[in-house]
């Protein structure tokens, strides 16, 4: 009974956090989906003795308000307690964008007020609008790939996506309310044309030309990928590669010169003696060859002992648009910098890698022998038909390895047979995932509670945010995160504090999680190692340009603030 009571208390916090984050509320089915997406397991109905989600929430009258509509729809909304009333008010004030109004980005300012104790959500970032949902790069690439072969009617998109990728296109989980919003967010790559049959989705010509290689017959790209002097090696008759698999005795008989075939006519004793001498000679010859590597020749453009370079450090106190890609806790997460150029470069890389490695000749050419499968080896791996740059973190057994995805920040266990050598020119793009920790906060209980992590995931989920760079500690970027899509800017460290999950301490305490394991520090080379590191200014429109005088003003405001 005590365990059930504890589970119920934790669940109440999690449900309240999810419903507060949903301005319009959630249906019982949406609550189930949200919980599954965030906690990676279904609502513990059976453990608590309930038959349905509706039965569960009726036992939370202080947490959930059930709203019934004439059409029979039930909407669940949060009932804020003393510690969450302020947050609920901020979410309720979330702006609805009106077309035709001037964008926030039209008049950039240089100075900003930074977080202080006396200003929970200080007035800042007036030049930035980060409320628009953002599709992950992989999903964007999938939609572009789907349309690369031919245009699609909007009504056929769901079926075509399911048929190609084996799952439904659930745009709501990325923060979009309609498919129209999705298409608006991808207007730079997908055009919508009105026809008699309905809305037709067409890939814009510039992108279609880049993806055009996917439609080329397989035999042609394979010849292009293999150097001119090598195709003969790939087109060896099938009988020859089987020499390694055929038992030695049989192989030796095949290699006997034609003149020796007359041995069959020799007397039996002489034939046996001759065969013994020949076996000894062949054995000595094979012993000599066994000292040579048996593995196939490794292509000269395969990456062997190189590392990916990280992105240059961001300037302190600068403001930058970010998307949080992977979250362990508020003290350990990875971000992407928002910029059209960076987004396209990563998408182009993924398309090119898919094009190259999807062809059997090229793919087989870059198969990694067991001797190359070792911790620290940079390579690539196929997951759900896409290829990712990864670093081998550990070899689990003969079939599996754990890899670190340098462009997205997560560790994943994959089959060893899915690994391939990375081609040399795929080193050019720096690792895109930046290891981060939320600035100035520490968990109240020593470690982050599941409810705190769940709330942080809700705040970050598939949304372009504004990050304020504080400092780097041991290669980890400490920054403040802010949602500017409301009337008042919402600072995430203030939300965690107000919910009772975090203490704001005014300094950056090294992340315990990153101290235990920081794959980026282990495997990605810091950009500053090649001479003095140049600080990078994010693209215009994604930050407020901090000039020397304004930076000093902002610094004095932050340094002089009382916590």
UniProtKB/TrEMBL annotation:
<dbReference type="GO" id="GO:0007283">
    <property type="term" value="P:spermatogenesis"/>
</dbReference>
<keyword id="KW-0963">Cytoplasm</keyword>
<dbReference type="Pfam" id="PF00567">
    <property type="entry name" value="TUDOR"/>
</dbReference>
<feature type="domain" description="HTH OST-type">
    <location>
        <begin position="7"/>
        <end position="80"/>
    </location>
</feature>
<keyword id="KW-0677">Repeat</keyword>
<dbReference type="InterPro" id="IPR041966">
    <property type="entry name" value="LOTUS-like"/>
</dbReference>
<dbReference type="GO" id="GO:0030154">
    <property type="term" value="P:cell differentiation"/>
</dbReference>
<keyword id="KW-0221">Differentiation</keyword>
<keyword id="KW-0217">Developmental protein</keyword>
<feature type="compositionally biased region" description="Acidic residues">
    <location>
        <begin position="240"/>
        <end position="285"/>
    </location>
</feature>
<dbReference type="InterPro" id="IPR002999">
    <property type="entry name" value="Tudor"/>
</dbReference>
<feature type="compositionally biased region" description="Low complexity">
    <location>
        <begin position="108"/>
        <end position="117"/>
    </location>
</feature>
<keyword id="KW-0744">Spermatogenesis</keyword>
<feature type="region of interest" description="Disordered">
    <location>
        <begin position="102"/>
        <end position="123"/>
    </location>
</feature>
<feature type="domain" description="HTH OST-type">
    <location>
        <begin position="131"/>
        <end position="206"/>
    </location>
</feature>
<feature type="compositionally biased region" description="Basic and acidic residues">
    <location>
        <begin position="212"/>
        <end position="221"/>
    </location>
</feature>
<feature type="region of interest" description="Disordered">
    <location>
        <begin position="212"/>
        <end position="301"/>
    </location>
</feature>
<dbReference type="InterPro" id="IPR050621">
    <property type="entry name" value="Tudor_domain_containing"/>
</dbReference>
<dbReference type="InterPro" id="IPR035437">
    <property type="entry name" value="SNase_OB-fold_sf"/>
</dbReference>
<feature type="compositionally biased region" description="Acidic residues">
    <location>
        <begin position="222"/>
        <end position="233"/>
    </location>
</feature>
<comment type="similarity">
    <text>Belongs to the TDRD5 family.</text>
</comment>
<protein>
    <recommendedName>
        <fullName>Tudor domain-containing protein 5</fullName>
    </recommendedName>
</protein>
<dbReference type="GO" id="GO:0005737">
    <property type="term" value="C:cytoplasm"/>
</dbReference>
<dbReference type="InterPro" id="IPR025605">
    <property type="entry name" value="OST-HTH/LOTUS_dom"/>
</dbReference>
<dbReference type="Pfam" id="PF12872">
    <property type="entry name" value="OST-HTH"/>
</dbReference>
<feature type="region of interest" description="Disordered">
    <location>
        <begin position="534"/>
        <end position="563"/>
    </location>
</feature>
């Amino acid at each position: 009974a005590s365990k059930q009571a504890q589970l119920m208390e934790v669940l109440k916090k999690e449900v309240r956090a999810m419903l507060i984050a949903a301005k319009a509320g959630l249906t019982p089915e949406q609550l189930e989906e949200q919980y599954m997406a965030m906690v990676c397991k279904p609502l513990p109905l059976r453990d608590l003795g309930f038959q349905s989600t509706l039965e569960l929430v009726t036992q939370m009258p202080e947490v959930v308000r059930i709203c019934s509509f004439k059409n029979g729809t039930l909407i669940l909304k949060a009932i804020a307690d003393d510690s969450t009333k302020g947050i609920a008010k901020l979410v309720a004030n979330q702006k609805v964008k009106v077309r035709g109004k001037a964008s926030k980005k039209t008049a950039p300012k240089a100075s900003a007020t930074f977080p202080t104790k006396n200003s929970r959500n200080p007035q800042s970032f007036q030049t930035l609008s980060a409320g628009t949902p953002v599709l992950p790069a992989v999903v964007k690439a999938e939609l572009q790939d789907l349309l690369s072969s031919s245009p699609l009617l909007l009504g056929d998109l769901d079926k075509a996506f399911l048929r190609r990728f084996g799952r439904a296109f659930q745009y709501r989980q990325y923060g979009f309310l309609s498919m129209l919003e999705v298409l608006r967010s991808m207007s730079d790559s997908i055009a919508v044309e009105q026809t008699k049959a309905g809305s037709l989705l067409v890939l814009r010509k510039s992108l279609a030309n880049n993806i055009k290689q996917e439609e080329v017959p397989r035999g042609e790209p394979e010849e292009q990928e293999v150097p001119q002097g090598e195709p003969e090696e790939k087109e060896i008759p099938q009988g020859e590669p089987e020499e390694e698999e055929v038992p030695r005795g049989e192989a030796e008989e095949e290699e006997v010169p034609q003149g020796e075939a007359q041995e069959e006519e020799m007397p039996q004793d002489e034939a046996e003696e001759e065969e013994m001498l020949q076996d000894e000679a062949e054995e000595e010859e094979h012993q000599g060859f066994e000292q040579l590597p048996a593995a196939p020749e490794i292509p000269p453009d395969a990456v062997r002992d190189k590392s990916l370079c990280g992105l240059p450090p961001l300037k302190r106190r600068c403001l930058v648009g970010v998307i949080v890609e992977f979250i362990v806790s508020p003290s350990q997460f990875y971000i992407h910098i928002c910029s059209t150029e960076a987004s396209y470069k990563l998408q182009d890389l993924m398309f090119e890698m898919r094009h190259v490695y999807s062809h059997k000749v090229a793919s087989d050419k870059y198969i990694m022998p067991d001797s190359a499968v070792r911790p620290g080896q940079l390579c690539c791996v196929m997951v759900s038909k896409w290829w990712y740059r990864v670093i081998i973190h550990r070899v689990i057994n003969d079939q599996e390895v754990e890899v670190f995805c340098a462009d997205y920040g997560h560790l994943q266990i994959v089959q060893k047979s899915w690994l391939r050598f990375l081609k040399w020119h795929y080193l050019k793009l720096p690792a895109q995932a930046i290891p981060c920790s939320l600035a100035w906060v520490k968990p109240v209980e020593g470690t982050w509670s599941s409810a705190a992590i769940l709330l942080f995931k809700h705040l970050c989920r598939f949304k372009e945010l504004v990050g304020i760079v504080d400092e780097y500690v041991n290669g980890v970027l400490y920054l403040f995160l802010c949602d500017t899509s409301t009337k008042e800017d919402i600072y995430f460290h203030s939300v965690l504090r107000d919910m009772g999950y975090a203490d704001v301490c005014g300094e950056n305490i090294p992340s315990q999680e990153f101290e235990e394991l920081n794959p980026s520090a282990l495997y990605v080379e810091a950009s500053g190692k090649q001479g003095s590191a140049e600080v990078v200014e994010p693209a215009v429109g994604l930050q407020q340009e901090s000039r020397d005088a304004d930076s000093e003003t902002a610094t004095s405001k932050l340094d002089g603030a009382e916590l």
